[in-house]
Amino acid sequence: MDTLLEIRDLHAGIEGKEILKGVNLTINRGEVHAIMGPNGAGKSTLSAVLAGRPDYKVLSGSVSYDGRDLLAMAPEERSWAGIFLSFQYPVEIPGVSITNFMKAALNARRKAAGLPELKPAEFLKLLKEKMAFVQMKGEFAKREVNVGFSGGEKKRNEIFQMAMLEPVLSILDETDSGLDVDALRIVADGVNRLRSPQTASIVITHYQRLLEYIVPDVVHVLKNGRIVATGGAELVQQIETQGYDSIDG
Amino acid sequence: MDSVYVIGRDAVPSFLRLAEGESLRMTIVVPEGESCRLALEIDLDGPGASLDLAGATLSSGGEQVDISVVVRHNVPGCHSGQLFKSVVGGSAKVSFNGLVYVAQDAVRTVAHQQNHSLLLSETAVAESRPQLEIYADDVECSHGATTGYLNPEELFYMRSRGIPEDEARRMQVEAFLAPVLLRAGIDKADSL
Questions:
Q1: Cα of A208 vs its chain's centroid, Å
Q2: DSSP string, chain B
Q3: Can you tell me the ipTM of this complex?
């Protein structure tokens, strides 16, 4: 097994409040892991800590990513190393177009890898290809990032960015919340098409619905800041029929 | 008429008068490193005159920028629009005083004034004093002012996509000033 991410006894929180209370998780390349749990279990804290959100503080424990100390890396360095977080609440950036945003993101990554900037024609080709991937039309590229987007458009924009950046580890934080069935299909299709033996995903969700479209290899239940159960699809069924209370934590 | 004034390069007139049907589009840019005291008065003296005034300031050290604008609507049916945007960093201080005066006869006046400031440091100061002095009925007048810091959520979102922090900040500053800078034919805050 080729381990991509190893979280050991991770304690973390925000504003002096401990939310993760000893998370252990190992993810190998090629795997899709689902993390399910009730509201307030720490799901979003886990994704925030993995992406390096500055207001979240790690209290103890370690996270190793591709053999590197993830917690020592700045958010942009994590991105260059292949980590991508699909935000639960994508942020609006007034005055910055999708085109300029993606150009800055791609070129920063290329610079970090010692590669020259993409030529305008190459960039446009890539942009069009990935827009088609999430069924976005031409004017999308000129719009300001997430400004005035519907909930479904924001989530499709996340998957579009994911397709542009071709991450090694994608973390989808409640990407299914607020999506209608059509948008959910587009998002799930996008994720499934990016699956490969080299990459891995963490799908964080409250509901089983998304997991009908993105079938996980491993399912974890996060409750009160700890992973209290790990299993396969049967765990999803148990939660669906008996609720989170049926799983001890 | 469309005129652009860059402080340090151009002298800004202190008094202008617009006659009947005249229209003026004026853009003032105060680049980084420039301290200045600007006092500008514009009289709308002929019916149907129209003023479209915008300004951008970028200060990041110890600059002192003081802008005061008086726009007088003296006759009916004139339009004025003002948009001033300031990015203030370091220990710079930028103040904006904007008075819109509407005379008693100046019915059907349309006057709008906006002043927005973005602070880049705790020691930067932005002062905004918009004033409306209206003696006529049947007018459409408004003013608005905001002052804020760079949004940390936006910064983290950009960094999570691999855009380094300093570049993310620069993009936000550029996006903030863009509505004014584009009028002046400047498309990058770098070149200020």
A1: 17
A2: -EEEEEBTTBPPPSEEEE-TT-EEEEEEEE-TT--EEEEEEEEE-STT-EEEEEEEEEE-SS-EEEEEEEEEE-STT-EEEEEEEEEE-TT-EEEEEEEEEE-TT-TT-EEEEEEEEEE-STT-EEEEEEEEEE--SS-EEEEEEEEEEPPHHHHHHHHHTT--HHHHHHHHHHHHHHHHHGGGT---GGG-
A3: 0.95
Select the residue of B151, B162, B178 nearest A105 (Cβ to Cβ).
Answer: B162
H-run or E-run covering A219:
strand A218-223
**Could you give the residue ranges of the DSSP H alpha helices within A114-244?**
120-133, 151-165, 181-193, 233-242
Nearest to A190 by CA among A220, A221, A152: A152
A19/A36 Cα distance (integer angstroms)? 16
A106 vs B contacts (CB less than 8 Å): 162
The count of domains in chain A is 1
Contact of A70 with A48, CB cutoff 8 Å: no
Chain B positions in Cβ-Cβ contact with residue A96 (cut-off 8 Å): 171-172, 175
What tokens appear for A32 in the block?
Answer: 């899709």
Model pLDDT for residues A121-153, shown as the tens digit of each residue:
999 999 999 999 888 888 999 999 999 999 889
Q: In the structure encoding, which two tokens stand for residue B182, read together?
A: 């584009």
Rounded CA Rg of chain B: 18
Show me where the domains of chain B are located.
2-149
- Contact pairs from chain A to chain B, CB under 8 Å: 73
- CA distances (Å), A60 to each of A9, A20, A35, B27, in order? 7, 10, 21, 54
What's the CATH code of the domain at A118? 3.40.50.300
B150 touches chain A (CB under 8 A): no
Tell me how far apart the alpha carbons of residues A114 and A134 are, in angstroms, rounded to a whole number: 29
A219 in Cβ contact with A36 (< 8 Å) = yes
Taking contacts as CB-CB distances below 8 angstroms, the residues of chain A near B164 are: 76, 108
**B62 touches B92 (CB < 8 A):** yes
CB of A64 within 8 A of CB of A23?
no
Domain that residue A234 falls in: 3-246
Looking at the DSSP bridge assignments, the partners of residue B100 are B71, B132
The per-residue pLDDT for range B80-119, each reduced to its tens digit, is: 999 999 999 999 999 999 999 999 999 999 999 999 999 9
Question: Positive or negative, the Cα torsion across B100, B102, B106, B111?
Answer: positive
Q: Tell me the whole-structure pTM to 2 decimals.
A: 0.89
